Structure formats: structure tokens, C-alpha cells
Amino acid sequence: SCGDKKEGSPPSSSSTTNATPSKTPVAEVSLPNFLLTQAEIDSVLGATDSKKTRSIDSLKTDNPADVFPKSYKFPDECLFITGAAESSVYAGSGNTAVKGERYVASTSSGSDEPNPEVTQALVLFPSADQANAFFGTSTQRWSACANRKDTVAAEGDAPAITWKVGPVANNNGVLSASSNVSS
To answer: pTM of the prediction?
Structure first.
């Protein structure tokens, strides 16, 4: 934000303005304080027994889109559905730190459904401008992938894979979308 003049001060003739941050930037050491707690994760999963299975301290360099056959090009605008804190999604964004966790809960006995899981990650940027630029780009990319579905043909021993993305929402500066990948 820009500095404001004090009431009763004469207008300034200078063309420069002092910039004063309205909030103190978040320090990397504080990132874990913004992650959901285990109780909040259980609420999201509708479970009572989720367990943290992994801590995330850097962007993931193994691109899950690489599990698709080489003949299939996963759309760049949809890479966000392949996992949290993917390096290919944040490439060139200027981010400086990552903190996150993965939780898994058990399904009911005898269920054929996979265990529900939540992966959450926070990515730190050195300035609000860089974070806002990344958010703006993400908003455009996510919207280009909204309500989209594709089936990757079976190849060799690999079964066909279907991925789909639901609607994209931007509520109070939080992008969200549902996604599902199945074989």
C-alpha cells in the first residue's frame, strides 16, 4: 500500500511515495502454523484416524503426469491436479520455501475404495506482488481446466486412466477444484 498524507499536511509535490506494508510478511518458520491440524484434516475426510505419512519441505520434482504413457501429453493448464507443490506448476514463480504434509485415513473394513487422503502445502513468495502474479496465472490456468475430463488409452501393461476436474471456485482468494484420477 502507499503511504498516506497526514490530515492537515500540504499536498506533496514529489512524484515518489513511501510504500508502507500493511502487514508483516510471513516468515518461513511460521508456515507450519498455517497448516490444517489433524482434527481439521479428519473433519475434511470424515474420519477420526488420519495419520501424517509425509512432511513436505520442498517442491516435488517427480511429476505425476510422467506416469501417463509417453504418447500422452498432459495439459499444462491441468498440471495442478497432479499433486500439491509440484515443481512444474511453480517453475519460474520466484517462490522461496515450501511446507506441507500428507495425511491418510483408513476406509471401512471390506471397502474397495482407496484410503482417503489429504495433501496440503504452503508455498512462500518473497513479495505480495510475486504471490499475486502467481495467483493470477493460476486462476487463468485452473479456469482453462475446469469441468474437463480425458481418458488416456491403455498402453502395454498400463490400464486406461481417466482424469477429471470439476468446477473451479475462487472464494476469498482461495482457488479450489475437485479432481479425480482413476484407472
So the answer is: 0.75
